[in-house]
């Protein structure tokens, strides 16, 4: 079973009110977002992680979602090239921070695009969603980089969802929490799939951290389903980040 020791996060910027969104929930409240982010950082620390907190980057409204800027594992770090043009450039300062932890950084190059929200590790495999943000060339490059360390990259074509991890989370021990088109995805046939209850699809983006699953507050049926699968849970309010299509995994890089 994987164990995390480090995480990297970035504080929300005031410009996040201009962030990309299809949620239709209105603009985020920066004061509440800062409070929710602080609670998220504290939860990661309570789970045993040493958390590096980067200052807000006002040049990029969506920069709080650091997961999209890199793919990390104990052996390697790959700097992404976001598929959303307004987010290209976020990865540069994250790469500078990661250079303090990894002796070598690989990087996705055009015409490849890759966002970390489309990348889910499950043991020795990385599943990569082919989405509007991540293309096949980006997935190919990631496979070449991670293949040097013995990992296999498996692509998953996506339909309606924004990112792969919008609809599925790996909870270790062969368990997947999934919703919508991903519940019956053939690539996941070897896993025990826990369907997210109807009406609580947002909770599909939950986050396993060292034996505990962080779940978004306000989705009690999904939380019960995770607990019934044998996982301890901690509910966190991330409602302000939901307004920008973001979830729990989006707010950190973990290794």
Task: Give your account of this protein's structure.
- The protein has 255 residues and is α/β, with parallel strands linked by helices.
- The protein has a single domain, classed as 5-stranded Propeller (L-arginine/glycine Amidinotransferase, Chain A).
- Helices cover 22% and strands 24% of the residues.
- The strands form five sheets. The protein has a three-stranded mixed sheet, with helices on both faces. The chain has a three-stranded mixed sheet with strand order 3-4-5, with helices on both faces. Strands 6-7-8 form a three-stranded mixed sheet, with helices on one face.
- A hairpin with a 4-residue loop joins strand 9 and strand 10.
- The radius of gyration is 17 Å and the shape is globular.
- It starts with 5 loop residues before the first strand and ends with a strand.
Which spans have pLDDT < 50 for at least 5 consecutive residues?
Answer: none
Q: Widest sheet: strand order? A: 2-1-15
In percent, how helical is the residue content?
10-25%
Determine the number of helices (DSSP H or I, runs of at least 4 residues).
6
Task: Give me the Rg, rounded.
Answer: 17 Å
CATH architecture: 5-stranded Propeller
Tell me the number of strands.
15
Number of domains: 1
End-to-end separation:
13 Å
Share in β-strands: 15-25%
CATH topology, what is it called?
L-arginine/glycine Amidinotransferase, Chain A
| Helix and strand element order | EHEEEHEEEHEHEEEEEHEHE
SS class: alpha/beta
CATH homologous superfamily?
A: L-arginine/glycine Amidinotransferase, Chain A
Largest sheet: 3 strands, mixed
Q: Name the CATH class.
A: Alpha Beta
């Amino acid at each position: 079973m994987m164990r995390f020791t480090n995480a990297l996060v970035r504080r929300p910027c005031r410009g996040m009110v201009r962030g990309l969104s299809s949620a239709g929930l209105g603009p985020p409240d920066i004061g509440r977002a800062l409070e929710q982010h602080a609670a998220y950082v504290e939860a990661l620390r309570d789970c045993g992680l040493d958390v590096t907190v980067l200052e807000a980057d006002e040049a990029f409204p969506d920069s709080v979602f650091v997961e999209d800027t890199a793919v990390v594992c104990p052996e390697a770090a790959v700097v992404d090239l976001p598929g959303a043009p307004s987010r290209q450039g976020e990865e540069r300062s994250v790469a500078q921070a990661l250079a303090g932890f990894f002796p070598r950084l690989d990087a996705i190059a055009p015409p490849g695009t890759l966002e970390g929200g489309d990348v889910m590790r499950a043991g020795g495999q990385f599943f990569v969603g082919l989405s509007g943000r991540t293309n096949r060339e980006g997935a190919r490059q990631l496979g070449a980089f991670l293949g040097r360390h013995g990992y296999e990259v498996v692509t998953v074509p996506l339909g309606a969802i924004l990112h792969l991890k919008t609809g599925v989370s790996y909870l270790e021990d062969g368990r997947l929490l999934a919703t919508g088109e991903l519940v019956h995805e053939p690539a996941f046939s070897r896993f025990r799939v826990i369907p997210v209850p109807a009406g609580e699809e947002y909770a599909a983006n939950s986050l396993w951290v060292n034996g505990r699953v962080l779940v978004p507050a306000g989705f009690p049926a999904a939380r019960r389903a995770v607990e019934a699968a044998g996982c301890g849970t901690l509910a966190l309010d991330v409602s302000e980040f939901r307004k920008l299509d973001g979830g729990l995994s989006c707010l950190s890089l973990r290794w």
